[in-house]
Amino acid sequence: MFSLIRPFIFNIDPEKAHTLAIKSLKYNFVPEKFFKVENEEKLSISLFGKSIKNPIGLAAGFDKSGEVYNQMFKLGFGFVEIGTVTPKKQFGNSKPRIFRLEKDLALINRLGFNNDGSEVVKKRIENNLPTSLLGINIGPNKETADMSEDFLKCAKTFFPLGDYITINISSPNTTGLREFHKKEVLEKLLYKINLIREESNYKKSFLLKISPDIGEKNIDEIINLILKYKINGVILTNTTDNNRENLISSNKIESGGLSGKPLTNLSTNLIKRFYKDLKNKVPIIGVGGVDSGKSAFEKIAAGASALQLYTGMVYEGPMIIKKIKSELIEILNEKGFKNIQEAIGSYSENST
């Protein structure tokens, strides 16, 4: 059905199409069983203390204000991450701010953390409890006087509600945010985040979402801080504001974060690099160019315990999850893996 309506959708402004998708999902018009696949039990994993049916997650950016996460579980996602949520409601950057790069199977966005704010999102979650693993991606308001304080406000708000909280230090669309990749700045934030965890009775997980544009020195420093402050997971990666030279679409000149197919190798290589030092210590969630069983397996074999996608769904529609699950199971069978857990880091293990 998506192939029939795609021309219509792609004639609409990308942000209007996204708004239409959110409104449509609220009607729950497709039964959950439609998205199940045979032998899906081979994809079952435990992530942040919760058993989920498969490792394919919805990346932050689609359900920014926590409106349709339970509907996304029904489409076949094993877990969903909402946000980025800021303490106060925020309009974001001026429009237009999302651009399709159809020939490159990519998007460029400079949304700027548009969302309904922490109090509204909190009430939504309280009134509509998640049916599977829910992550909440948090960030600072654009006009804040103290970005660290905004992170802490959101962490305190959502720590009792989400299964995990993602500290988003990696969007290229909020001025100064990527300064948190610097050792001294990040360490101060993680120290304060840990205080919240220690003072709380809730055993929830904190994750860090990393930029794909970091250098080797940053990688070593961030890995050391992740281990030192017992961060529970790392998301690799957010969008890139580089890597435009090989793009075809005319929209490549737009400023903002690039996502989709062009990010595939960049994010997979970073997964390999982080897995080398984090092996079996901290789970990695791989993001960037996941649009098939093959691209999903490559990230898992590189060391990702789970995956997230968003842009792939823009181009292929909601059936992409079912397709990836089926193709992943076929690949596992071909390679002799009994389940997805056995495949994690298999590239690295085979090369040693």
Q: What does the model show?
A:
This protein is an alpha/beta fold and 352 residues long. It has a single domain, classed as Aldolase class I (TIM Barrel, Alpha-Beta Barrel). It is 38% helix and 16% strand. It contains 13 helices and 13 strands. The chain has helices at residues 2-9, 14-25, 69-74, 118-127, 147-158, 183-199, 216-228, 264-278, 293-302, 311-316, 320-335, 340-343, 346-350; strands at 45-47, 50-52, 56-58, 79-85, 98-101, 106-109, 133-138, 164-168, 205-210, 233-236, 257-260, 284-287, 306-309. The strands form three sheets. Strands 3-4-7-8-9-10-12-13 form an eight-stranded parallel beta barrel. Strands 5-6-11 form a three-stranded antiparallel sheet, with no helix packed on it. It has a two-stranded antiparallel ribbon with strand order 1-2. Helix 7 links the parallel strand 9 (205-210) and strand 10 (233-236). Helix 6 packs parallel to helix 7 and helix 8 (264-278) runs parallel beside helix 9 (293-302). The mean pLDDT is 95.
